[in-house]
Design goal:
The complex is a heterodimer of chains A (322) and B (265). Chain A has 322 residues and is of the alpha/beta class. Chain A is built from nine helices and 13 strands. Classes of the chains: A alpha/beta (322), B mainly alpha (265).
Chain lengths: 322, 265
């Protein structure tokens, strides 16, 4: 089985300005990957390339083995500013995707009753998903009547109901207050737990996430793998590339938010990715797959069966050792 | 204090008082005028207004009433012109807002067309479309078209973010579904607001055209009766124009509130 996401020698430039160069990345099914980097390093460019709205000048990107050349249902997106449809209620926003995906304009007009029956089913699915995300009271409200946190939950529901191969989160909590942000971080950890349970049952984990964020604590707290994209490197070519790729601790939603666990790793990331004077060379800090293969061998099926980082589970802290 | 809110009672009291002042002022002016010249018709009194209503509703030799004939002619032309203009503007405006090719084709032409007063083009419409209904429909529809199409275009460009469009694609939408299910639905309230703003100008174009070329309709009647200084008929027509315009404006605002409750006030 192919990887959920594979980025192969991606390069991008705007005129003479080389933004991305030699970007290579493989993301297994069920991984939560955080992408961090200095301002202007090309995170958004890479995200748009993965989304398919702005294909790269060089290289290829594949979602579950299919090359991405334009936006499709394979890759879902949640933006910082929600981008919900103002004219639809929360429930309709979530049901909007299945409706667009499974019917077309002519079907909706000429087979109205079939469409109506299907639409009721999607609305019910949407209701259940919104309930799962603690949005029972928001179901019939328009986005203008929802708080920022509620809008972002609806946006996440809208994306995951489509079961995308890869879900992109573009600074999803950047516009939220601290408390709401923490609630939503826990919600993402709950989705990660669904991945863990699916793996335990021998099923394909349902959520593969690439999270772009400026918050380093958030990156290490939510993701099981942190990637640093930076233009500050000593690899001898212009543009940003991946200079940091390491496993991150895996927190359970009920575990205390003990950020001290990854303090040293965060400081290393800060130096390697954000320090203009420190220019890492080669794959010195790109060690995720090396460590993974040491533990589990090459994941030929692209599914990540176990975490290789620290697992922070409930109040107890355990470390998986080789 | 500036913009300090007031109670509803105070609001209505001021509105009614202002209306009463206008009526009293008019009555006083009419009374004074009658003292100088009892047969004066420039500032008609209540009796003269009743005579005006009788004139408008009295069947002529063919059994037709002026008021009904004029209402039918003017509002038939107005409605047909608005309908054609609205459809044309929606199609072109949406195309411009969604497709850069269409934007390149139409934007410059629309900008040029919007700078020419439609009433100045009566001769052009007269030559191209004759003097019948077609001319009035063309005049109104092409008169409101640049403004309305640009409003739709601007709304499609500014009210619908790139993110909303990209997301629609990730939800499985085709290009036509993005236009219909995302862009069109998002701009409906702005579109209805833009139509509200064009109802008045459309009527101005029509009255001007009827004034110049018609043999029936409000514009024609106003021209004839103004020449004869029959202000008791003129004022009644002006009141009808104001009331119907208000009714159309209110209907569109109501439709916007009902169709787009998410848009707010």
């Amino acid at each position: 089985m192919p990887f959920a996401l594979k980025i192969d020698e991606v390069c991008h430039n705007f005129g003479d300005n080389q933004v991305l160069n030699h970007v290579n990345l493989k993301v297994g099914h069920g991984q939560f990957v955080a992408l961090v980097g200095p301002s202007g390093c090309g995170k958004s460019t890479l995200l748009r390339a993965i989304l398919g709205t702005h294909p790269p000048v060089g290289g290829n990107i594949y979602a579950h083995g299919t090359e991405i050349t334009r936006p499709s249902c394979d890759v879902g997106i949640v933006y910082q500013h929600y981008s919900l449809y103002d004219f639809l209620t929360a429930q309709e926003n979530v049901a909007f995707g299945p409706m667009l995906d499974q019917t077309n304009l002519w079907f909706r007009i000429f087979r109205f009753w079939d469409f109506f029956r299907m639409y009721r089913g999607w609305m019910e699915d949407a209701r259940q998903l919104l309930n799962k995300l603690d949005l029972e009271k928001a179901i019939n409200k328009f986005p203008a009547d929802l708080s920022g946190g509620m809008k972002q939950r609806v946006a996440i529901a809208q994306a995951i109901i489509m079961k995308p191969k890869v879900l992109l989160l573009d600074e999803p909590f950047g516009a939220l207050d601290e408390s709401t942000r923490e609630d939503l971080q826990v919600m993402l950890l709950q989705l990660y737990q669904e991945n863990v349970r699916a793996r335990d049952r021998g099923e394909m984990p349902p959520y593969t996430v690439v999270l772009v964020t400026h918050e380093l604590n958030e990156a290490f707290y939510i993701a099981d793998r942190v990637i640093g994209l930076s233009q500050y490197h000593g690899n001898g070519f212009p543009g940003a590339t991946i200079v940091f790729d390491q496993p991150a601790p895996v927190f359970s939603p009920t575990a205390p938010r003990n950020f001290g666990i990854f303090f040293e790793q965060k400081e290393l990331l800060r130096k390697v990715v954000f320090d203009e004077k420190y220019l890492p060379k080669g794959d010195e800090f790109v060690t995720f797959w090396n460590q993974y293969e040491k533990l589990h061998g090459i994941p030929a099926d692209g599914v990540m069966p176990k975490s290789i980082g620290t697992v922070v589970d409930g109040p107890a802290i355990t470390t998986i050792k080789e | 204090m500036i913009r300090k809110p007031i109670s509803k009672v105070r609001w209505w009291a001021f509105s009614i008082a202002a209306m009463v002042v206008v009526v009293l002022l008019y009555s006083w002016m009419s009374y004074r005028q009658k003292e100088f010249n009892p047969k004066d018709t420039t500032i008609p009194n209540a009796t003269q207004f009743l005579e005006g209503i009788e004139t408008l509703t009295k069947p002529d030799v063919n059994g037709d009433m002026w008021l009904i004939m004029d209402l039918r002619a003017t509002y038939g032309r107005h409605l047909a012109g608005m309908l054609v203009g609205v459809i044309l503007s929606l199609v072109i405006g949406l195309a411009m807002g969604c497709y850069t090719d269409a934007e390149a084709i139409f934007k410059f032409q629309l900008t040029c067309l919007s700078k020419i007063p439609p009433t100045a083009m009566i001769a052009v419409y007269f030559v191209l479309f004759g003097t019948e209904l077609n001319m009035y429909v063309a005049m109104i529809s092409l008169g409101i078209f640049p403004t309305l199409a640009m409003a739709v275009y601007q709304a499609a460009r500014k009210d619908v973010t790139h993110d909303a469009i990209y997301k629609a694609y990730t939800l499985g939408a085709s290009d036509s579904e993005v236009v219909w299910n995302v862009v069109f639905k998002q701009i409906i309230p702005r579109f209805l607001e833009a139509i509200r703003l064009t109802v008045g100008p459309a009527m101005v174009f029509l009255i001007a055209a009827e004034w110049a070329t018609a043999d029936i309709g409000f514009g024609y009647r106003l021209r004839i009766q103004s020449r004869l200084l029959n202000m008791n008929v003129v004022y009644i027509y002006l009141v009808i124009l104001a009331l119907t315009s208000y009714l159309m404006d209110w209907s569109l605002a109501y439709a916007r509130r009902k169709m787009c409750p998410w848009f707010g006030e």
